[in-house]
C-alpha cells in the first residue's frame, strides 16, 4: 500500500485503531481458525499487521511472526515480543520463497490498487511453504472508493476473489462471510477466505 491519504489516517488515528483492533482480536473466530489451519510452531507473516493485536496472539501460541506494516506510527505500537519481528514494509516488499507456514492478510490488501492485487497474491503464493495457508480478509462489493476518513478501499465479490486466488496458484478451501464496523463507523459486509498453497 502506498496511498498517502490512507497511510496518513493510520498514522494520525493509530491509538483509536489500536484500541479497536485489540477488542476485535480477542473475540475473532478467524484467528482461531487460522491457528487450527496453521498449527504452531511455525513461521507466519502478518501482512499489514497494524498495531500487532493478531501478531501477539500468534506469537503467544508459539509462532515466529514477521509483522509488516507501511504505517510507521501503528507499527511502532506492536508490543515487544521475542517471537515478533516488526518491519516497516509495503506489500511490494514480499520477495520470500517458501518461507512461511501461514500468511495472515487480514483486511490489509483491500487498500492495494485493484491492478496490483494479482501480483500481491502471486507473491504470497511464492512465499508460502508447500501446504501453507493464507487467510485473506476483504470487504465485499464492487469498485473502489474512499471511506469517510479518506482511506482508499477496493471491494470484491467472493467469486472474483476466489478466481484471483486460483490464478495466483492458491486453492480456496473455505470462507466465512459477515459484517463489521470499522474505524470510520460504517458497518460493511466482508469475507475471510482460506486458501492453501
What features would you describe in this structure?
With 197 residues, the protein is of the alpha/beta class. It has seven helices and nine strands; from the N terminus they run H-H-H-E-H-E-H-E-E-H-E-E-E-H-E-E. It has helices at 4-12, 14-27, 29-37, 53-60, 72-75, 117-127, 158-167; strands spanning 43-47, 64-69, 84-88, 100-106, 128-139, 144-146, 152-154, 171-181, 187-196. The strands form two sheets. It has a seven-stranded mixed β-sheet. Helix 6 links the parallel strand 4 (100-106) and strand 5 (128-139). The protein is globular, with a radius of gyration of 15 Å. The model has no long low-confidence stretch (mean pLDDT 93).
Write the layout of secondary structure elements.
Blueprint: H1 4-12, H2 14-27, H3 29-37, E1 43-47, H4 53-60, E2 64-69, H5 72-75, E3 84-88, E4 100-106, H6 117-127, E5 128-139, E6 144-146, E7 152-154, H7 158-167, E8 171-181, E9 187-196
Parallel strand pairs: 1-2, 1-4, 2-3, 4-5
Antiparallel strand pairs: 5-9, 6-7, 8-9
